[in-house]
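Table S2 (continued). Query chain:
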Amino acid sequence: MVEKVHEMGKTIFFDLEGPLSPQDNAYEVMKLIGEEGAPIFEVISKYDDFISLEGREGYEPGDTLALIVPFFFLHGITEEDIRRVSERAKIVEGAEYLFRKLQADNWDIYIISTSYGQHAYNVGRKLGVPTDNIICTNISKTLREKKALPRKFFHTIKKAEEDIIELYSDIENTELIVNRLDEFFFHQLPSLSYDIFAIRVIGGERKAEAVRQIVKEKEGELSNAITVGDSITDYKMLNEVATHGGISVVFNGNEYAVPYANVGLASVDIRFLLILCDAFVRGGKGEVMEVATKWEENREVFEKNPSDIPDNCITADIRHFIMKQKKFFPYFHNIEHANERRKDEIIKIHKQVRMQVREDAGKLG
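Corresponding output:
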């Protein structure tokens, strides 16, 4: 396995929102609309979760980013607005350190993100990832087409917006939400010659496709790759790598992502991922699973005595960081060997940390 890792080159794929930046960029952009922006996004996100899990043909998790575009038109949201919101985005603690270490150790790093390009390229630039290694959602051409839209289009959106705000007061009523938004997105807008899915959002199966394509171009195997994600848009990518013998790490994941990874990392700081990456280079998947299991079984002991953590379960830099900072101590989980009850426990831990890191965005799918 170690030889194969080196033959392909050390390759790691990151989702962006969650593992690398706590901001949900589209959610924050919708808030530019005013106080109605967040409720509109949350209702549409709820709709996205439902029809994604339903397995609706032609729909992928994350297509929320196509569904909200008509509201951008209505309120005059521009590319520059998306960039401006992205500039406020924080980077997850430890990400800059992690990327410097991975780059110094000749890892090929890719970001595969549902995010709009204006956000994905901004965060990628801050972490030193070249644009050629970032696969994301291109919205630029669509936003420039506003002038060609008929007046009736805007009246239809305005009415839908009013209905969505009303639906927010009963957001757990999935049937009402699905019925109204099905009518809007799949009947009313197409009747006005507007194609929601002209925007190819990089989510769900498209993330998995991107991973497969990159690995194929590198003449490698999925068993020699690591992928990192946290939400419903990532579960197919996580599952693709995990079921082909690679390492899928869920970082502060939700119930949609945790079951599809084979390793879990719950932490306010992502630098601890380096422990798994180093284990992967040393001994492939087997070594990673062994390290994750040792942390899971001995977490309390490790936390009390970081100096006693075995050398194969930590790096010198991270040991020093733990002993000096005394910050939140990470959780590692062997999800592959967890039964359903244990997975539920892991999801609770991940959700608690997720809300701490991602704040409002943590409640989204």
